[in-house]
Structures are given as structure tokens and as C-alpha cells.
């Protein structure tokens, strides 16, 4: 049995697994059995010798200054080794951000003196046990000079914010066209603060050996986070190793190194012992930010036949006092429909909150909530079917970039979804479909997510026992990376997928870019494919040329590799298992490292930049085409007429993610995203205590996410075709696409059921009764 950190065997490969090609087969997740059995060890489950425990202490005011921290009682408490505050923290350097822009030359202190939000880290306590550290943290006596805070987007003191010029989009004369349009609608749409809440909370174990730092920390981007730690502590990048073979979800929140990580590494350095620091669930609402609250106004001008003449869009999202986090609210608005006139602007508004971060489909998600509700409102205004109005305004090319789509199977998605859902049986009037006490509503919305591209690197080894090993510092937080990379290598070399071991989640392995922006599957299958083909070529070359090869006498110019055997395409001579061949020629292994960097961009500096920043990431419109995934959600709700409770009773979604490397896993991604979308539509909302700017529902008991009982059967239909412009193997983005459009489909269904238009999420019963 190999180490559990390199899951090797596929589980039950039923479900048509072996039917057809290996890549594209419905294999179960190869990391599944270790997780189900509890054999998979997550970062915080490790117990290095001499381990000590750190806990974070967070501010209880939203603005002002830490006047004093009396540490005496805490320092005297049993087991306490160190009490860290802004005053005795190690001097760290500010690290560059993820774009790689040079950082300001000033120190970085993860512990605050000046408080910019409630829940900001102000101190940490390290003790022999977690309980001792927790108890001592309670003994810290912290006094604040409290200042007035801006609690949220609606605070009168917040103002309109500042414009983000980069996000302005305009063509034609949107205001004039709107004023002249025969039909106009205008409304404001809002989404609240939403949180990532992955089931595996954040935290790490940090350990120094001399100037080398080893971290066990869940991460969506080992190389990017390693760069940040290296810059903070002024050590070479190669000295930082992050290990995370298993990750319990991230949804965007584990892409960047965070303040608590700096604190743990700092404490480990000061004490010369490994430090474990676990962020508690309540702290995870302020140790990093989720999706910021947003508001947008959308005005649509149209002909009486429902043809759009103008879109005027103004959006704003909240950001923190110190950072600028942008949730691009025009990302769907500007490309979903054909319109001769458009103007879209966005502001960010500073409030006293932790800096918001990415949460599954940042931008596209709230953007679609606005435009996909608005188009529904226009359809209702005009008495046109919501599906029909979307087809009348179908964008045949990218209206913003003026480039052709590489593939856009949205028409096919509408058709397949409508057919499976039975959309033609919808009675158009609101409140016209009911079942006893339940008002029934059918709603529709479309979604999209861009295809981003960054080069990747992978190593494929053919071992003496005939098995393959794929290694990469990319990660699997549940998406299925282990499995699809095994499938890719198996198919390219010609061995059974059961004979492929994949090692991921260690920054000492070949480099990989961020598992964010739904790009990893396409990038890493591309890199593994290239390395695997090269490994196979080397194998065949040896079989043809090596003096000890039994194939040498055939004088063939090529050989077949399939089912783990080498043979002649003409059927002459032996069919030799790969392992036996390697033994005969006395080779231990064939090892091939390949990357997909462009020619001439392989210098050490280029590689460093590519893997540790997003500077080299191509946008969906770099090149001749505009690259996006697309989807259409058809959703049925049942609203209890007396109580206003909303149940989602049926979901049919048709999605275009291009070619699927593993339909079972892609469908699981899609269903997961739709489930998150249901939670977003009906439940999720960070509630701010207006007196202290504190998130009051900072736990999974009060911050509601969808549970099994909230989720009906979900039918997902793939309408994608291979897209050669999007990626080496023809796939497009999968992970974030499905959440886009779910909330507006539900809001539209609720309107159809009740005649009430709810434009601010979540759609709770008090808004309906
Ligand atoms: N896939 C496929 N065919 C394709 C593309 C993808 O079969 N053409 C499948 C594969 O199983 C692949 C998965 O879909 O592993 C996701 O691929 P991709 O869309 O490239 O997304 P990433 O691997 O880059 O994963 C990140 C993405 C993001 S950005 C968020 S946010 C998110 C998401 O994945 N967070 C997740 N899905 C998540 N799923 C889980 N379980 N946990 C999270 O935290
Ligand atoms: Mo995903 S929010 O891009 O990690």
C-alpha cells in the first residue's frame, strides 16, 4: 500500500466507467475511499513533535485604536508560552499582491493597532495546549478608543464610493436610446454579504528548520501562497514548502495567504517549535472576507417586440477601509444580450469590514442576479415568454469585445432545458399555477463563466512496475483533479487508469497556477497530456532503439502502447507489458517534465511570475475568440400561500462547459454549484449588528446554508462540444459556472408563483407575506 498522501487506486469503477475512452469516462473520485474511511489526513490533523497551539484574538469594535492590551494575567496562565500583539510581533515585509505588482516598502504587521473592522486580529496567544491558549486568550484585557464606523453599504456615511474606471463599458448612446425607447423598465437589485464557509476551516501548522518554513495548510494555490510567505519573512521562495494533499473546500477563500498564517509562522519562528493555529468558525467570518454586499440599478429600453435598445447599468459593492475588492457587477450584463447601446459603471464603497474576497463566481454571480431578473421583468411587462425574449436578444457574438464566441451552446441549453423541464406547459400569468396551499412558479435564468488560461507544468513518470506517476503542485479541494489527471495520463500513455498514481498538493512538486477562476482542469490536463505523450514517445523510442529491446529487430518506426503493453502495430513480435520491457532494458523509470509555457517565456523569472502571480493569466478575450461557458437553469418553486415559505421543488439545468473530462465529476460540480445557488437565493445573508459593525450570525447554526432537506432532485444536462480554442483538450470552465443564474431563476419563479418581485436576496418569508 502506498502512502495515503498519494491516492492510487480508483474505487469502484462501475457506472459505465470503462465504457468508451478513459478521458471522458464517468469514473468515481480516486481520493474518495481515503476520505470516506477517514484515512485522508487534513492539514490540522497532523501532530508533529513538540507542537504548540496558537489562538487568535479579534477586535470587538469596528473602528478606532487599541489603547492598551494588559497581558499580565494571560502570560501568567498555565502553559502559556507567548502572547503576541502588534508591539512584539516580528518585523515582516509587505508582500506583493497576486498580480505581482511590487509591494510598498513598508513593514507588514498581521496584528492591528488601528482597527478597521470588528473581528480584526489584534493578538494571539500560544500555549502548550489548545485549551490553555483559549483560556489565556480570554484573560487578555484589551481597551479600545472606539471611533464611529461605517457598518455597511446602506450606512448614510458610506456615500456612493469611488469609481472603478477599468470596469466601465459603453457603446452607442445608452442614455439617449433609453429615453427614446418605447418600453422602459428600471429597478435596483441587491445581494447581501455572503460567506465561503468551507467545511474544513482555515488554519495551519507552521514549522521552521533554520531558514526553511514548512506549512501544512489548505490552499488553492501552493505556489502563490509560498511566494507570499517567502516575501513576508525575507527568505528565498524555494525555502517555503506548503503541503496540502487533501482540502475540505475553499470556494475562493483559500487562494491567498492570510494574516493568521503570518502569525502562526511568526510564532513558530520565535518559539523554535511547530505551531498549530486553527481559525474558529466564528473567526472565519472575519479572518478573511466573503462576497461583498452589492447593489445595482438596471434600466432596460426595448421595442414592443422585446428587442433591447439600451442597457444602463450602475453597480456598487462594499469594500474594506484599506483594500479595494471589486465584485465586477457588469460581467454578465455586458455580454449576455445583444444591445446597440449600453453603459455600465461600477463603484466600490468603503465600509468597516474585512476585505471581501472571491466566492464562487465573483462578479458573474451577482451580475446575473441583476440582468437575469431584469430581462424577466421586461418579458412580463411586454407579455412575452421569458425564454422567447432571451432568444430574441441572443448575442451572436461577444457584444463587448466584438469577437466571435469560440463556442456558445446557450441556444442548445435553452432548448434542452426547456424540453426536459416541460417549459411549454407553463401558464404565463403569475399565481396561475397552484397545488392546494402551494402557489407554483416556474422561473428561468441564464448564466455564464469565462475561460481563463495560465500555463501549467507536470511530470509524468513511467515506473519499473509498469505503472504511471503524475506529479504536480496543483490541488484537489473536491473538484476531482486527482481523477481527471489520472484519466488524462492513462489515455495518453496507454495504460489502465487503475495503474496511475497522482500526487498533488505539495509545493515541492512541479509548479501549478491557482485553482481559481475555474481554470485548473483545463490547464493541468493540458500539461499532463503533453508530458504523458512525451513519456510515451520516449518509451517507444527506447523500444525501437535500445540494444536490449526485443522490438529492435522489427526495425519498426513506431510501436503501439495500449492496455499497458507495447506491441507492433502490424502484430509482429511480442506484446510486452511496459514494466517487463523496462526491466529487460535495465531502466528504473522514464521521467518527463513538461510545461505549457509559450516558447521564449521559460526563463526562471518568467516561470516564477507565471506560477506565483496571476500576471500571465490570459483573459477570455485575449486572442481571436471570446471564450465562455454557458448555462440555463429552469426552476420550479412552491410557495406556501399562508406562510410565505419557499421550497425549490424541481431544477433542470443545461450547461455548456465544452468537452467534459469526467461527466460524473462535472455533473457533481454543477449540482454543487446549483445547491449553493439555492442557498444564496433563499438563506444566505451575513447580518450586521449596526451598533458595533459585528457579523452576528457568525456560525453554521445561524448563517444558513442549504441542507439536504432544502434540495430537490437536480437534473443536469451537458450540451457542450469540444472547444479547441478554449483548451488543449477541448474543455471549458466547470466549477463556478453552475452557481451563476440560480438565484435569478428562483426569484423569477417566485414572481411567477406569487406576483411579488423580490429584488434583494435572500428571498425570505417576511419579504413575501
Ligand atoms: N471538469 C471536467 N471537464 C472539464 C472541466 C472540469 O470534467 N472540461 C471537472 C473536473 O472534475 C474538475 C472540475 O470539473 O476537477 C473543476 O474544474 P474547473 O472548472 O477547472 O475548476 P478548478 O479545478 O479550477 O476548481 C476551482 C473551482 C472554483 S474557482 C471554485 S470557487 C470552486 C469549484 O472549483 N470551489 C470548490 N468547485 C469546488 N468544488 C468543491 N468540492 N470545493 C470547492 O471549494
Ligand atoms: Mo474560485 S471563487 O475562482 O476560487
TrEMBL record:
Top enzyme category: oxidoreductase
InterPro entries: Ald_Oxase/Xan_DH_a/b, Ald_Oxase/Xan_DH_a/b_sf, Ald_Oxase/xanthine_DH-like, AldOxase/xan_DH_MoCoBD1, AldOxase/xan_DH_MoCoBD2, AldOxase/xan_DH_Mopterin-bd_sf
Keywords: Molybdenum, Oxidoreductase
Superkingdom of source: Bacteria
Domain Aldehyde oxidase/xanthine dehydrogenase a/b hammerhead, chain residue ranges per copy: 37-148
GO molecular function: xanthine dehydrogenase activity
Its EC number(s): 1.17.1.4
The protein, known as: Xanthine dehydrogenase YagR molybdenum-binding subunit
Organism: Labrys monachus
